[in-house]
Amino acid sequence: MACFLVSAAAAVGVTAAKYIVRHNEKKNELVVKEPKEYKFGSEVKWSKKLAYLELMLWAGSFVLAGEHILHGEVTPFPPYLTKAGEGPEGVREMLTEMGTVGVIMLVSLVAVWGIGVLLVDYIKYRKHKKAENKVLSAEAK
Description:
This protein is mainly alpha-helical. The protein has one domain (4-140). It is built from 3 helices and no strands.
């Protein structure tokens, strides 16, 4: 019924967070810093990671909205959500679905994104350490 609104609302928040993080990253790039030791997860910027989450959330919202439109649960005329027009009982059922199905979908999307971010960071970290070890072994010879 309206579970897609939960991930759409989260996508709006992630979009705002992405722009704030991007602004801070650009501001910090202007400050000249000495090169530091490579840290886990520092190769891909957080604004890029949040952009992936944003894309996942928007895509999930649009696909679910399309599915609800095809099943007649969302209409192009008021009330847009068909359960909202059924009175208090319909609104209660709609909010229950948003609180259960919508939140579960949001949590699972964020979990998949988090696992993906960790895997990418781990792969890049291993690749960097492997290259660093080759350089160190070549210098030792």
